[in-house]
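I can't quite decide. Please look over this sequence plus structure tokens:

:::
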Amino acid sequence: MKRLTTLLLLMLCLVATMAQAQDKVTLSGYIRDRASGEGLIGASVSVQELPGVGVATNAYGFYSLTLPKGTYTLLYSYVGFVASGKTLPLGSSQKLDVELQENSTALQEVEITTHKEDNNVRSMEMSTLKMQVAELKSMPALLGEVDIVKAVQMMPGVQTAGEGTSGFYVRGGGADQNLILLDEAPVYNASHLMGFFSVFNADAIKDVQLYKGGIPAQHGGRLSSLLDIRMKEGNSKKLGVSGGIGTVSSRLTVEAPLIKDKSSFILSGRRTYADVFFGLSSDENIKGNQLYFYDLNSKLNYTLNDKNRLFVSGYFGRDVAATDDFMMNWGNATATVRWNHLFSDRLFSNTTFLFSDFDYALGSKEAESEFTWKSHIKDYGLKNDYTYFLNPKNQLRFGLHLTYHNFMPAEVKPGPASYVNELKLNSTSALEAAVYLSNEHQLTDRLTVDYGLRLSRFTNMGPGKVYLYDESFKTPTDTVEYGRFEKIKSYGGLEPRLSAKYELNEVSSVKASYNRTLQYLHLVSNSTSALPFDVWVPSSTYIKPQLADQVAAGYFRNFNDNMFEASLEVYHKWMDNQIDYKDYAEILLNDRLETELLRGTGKAYGAEFYVRKQKGLLTGSLSYTLSKTERTVPGINQGKAFAPRYDRRHSGNLALSYLFSPSITFGANWTYATGGAVTMPVGRFEYNGKTYPVYSERNGYRLPDYHRLDLSATYEKPRNEFRKYSGSWTLSIYNAYARKNAFTIFFRESEDDHTKTEAVKSYLFGLVPSLTYNFNF
């Protein structure tokens, strides 16, 4: 902690030293949506008289621009909104809040300059995907539910975990190597209904950003990606009610001002109702069954004064599956309290207190086998982040993050007449701390760099116990007990980050990035599906933190007056301390899990192509990824490199939206990927009258190729100033040509020849239609 504190003090001294500005004034304020009062993230402020000089708003819609005294024409713009220009004499520092008007459908054919249509060329960001929920809602969806995670799976460099699932893999990393944040709180399991839906209700979400590389120094703790999701703040202008009624679930969102233009709230809920239909069934075997999920998003914000604003937000969601003799439920709960404070018109701070809890429970209700099995991971965190707008060419970010983790892998309690034994696996806790400093520095009109450093520290603490082993690392010889908060093992390291952008001309640029990331938490799972039985474990005496170094480079180009944007990125990632399991490993309820784990190295590399059409009646995107991922783990596959299950050589996605009329929109998605890697039996042998399979090398075979077409049609009567209510009908067809994509492969003795084994493919979905009615007033 002393090193962390010292580095933070050095950061503050650096900022104080650099804060000298002579004969300059600062213009600052917030950019908001005129209709709702929501802050606009990443809105642009540019100065017409000073080409190349400008700034983007932060995650709360705040901007600050320091300029020499004079008169300037300022352009405020944001994607999907009408730009606003203002001419201002700046003789002294001043505050200017701006509200932008959203583009209406009726203005589709009018040429309007919106948020930097060439933003992909001019921004520092690469290996980054930014999505607005309005775009997502035009995409076809499984059972009518718009799903943020499934939209992410359509992007280059992102692989799906399988048919219907909401797990994803980024640039050769595992599912546990993605940091998912909801209003800055981590979400450890983002799946509903075993992965068929994600936990993110699109009605409550404002902004989604995925970082596949070039991860800002502010964020750490995962190797592969950051999925940063921000909830809406609530309409501070007027009451708004929206929702939808679908074939599987219904949604309702209410938002309104508490004090107009000063305080507002939003409440958004969603629930499925398959269990309602079970009760109507004549089949007594399913009549009393339960199968549903629900989630609730809530947020309150309050403007205390010009310099202070408070946000309180929470998410609560749970899945329930139960029969007469078995039950299972799991869910997430997150809460954040955030305080925005302006120390000056150039120094912005955000202090966040957060809580996150993922837990699951399952059990049997039968008297002889009655038991309850529970597990959880809980986080309590503090983040203190600062942004200092030093001048138009330098934007500093620095801060301190602290997180206390509490792990309870499993606790089994039997019923009074049960033969099941009571069991509690070794619980533990950990403290994760980090300080960081970064600077986005415009060196010339064409060259901009963003350099930063993150110093992280992880301490595994008691209460807990550590086994000591013999030379075989199988049999424990002794046990060391640790008291509450007593240090068990510490790790730490520096994580440098560097990005650079060079503008070749007005329509093209090249970018490059390097980042090192450390990951101290690990997911113990032997399944690609989003089962809730996966257990998070910390780095400890025998489990070292994972480490990755990634380099990436890209060429970005716009065509036809920014109608088309295109990019080509290549990347290479090296990974150390990658965890895998021994053959025939025993994972379930194992208190000495470290004896079943092996460590090795990994590497991933590939190329990502992306083309997007963003103007006209027909819009959409095309992406293609060529990639390879492999691991080398001593003790597995005879020490030879092998492909993880999620390695896919080729993948591509096509998403189209066509505005047939002001009221009718058609959508289509087509996705393709080569089959995932699997281990298959290649023979068998008999021993003592029993037959045993002989398996191929680790993941030596491939599942069949995956491809699917989804279609949608939406009818919506546009709202205008005389019509305050709007409604829409959306018909979606998932898997329109009924492709039987493999969900699992299992093997059985051939019915025709008992000396042979045959593979049987199971699949989840044929053609699945759905109808949803959405309303808004």
Remarks:
- The chain has a mean pLDDT of 85.
- The longest helix spans residues 2-18.
- The CA atoms of residues 347 and 530 lie 42 Å apart.
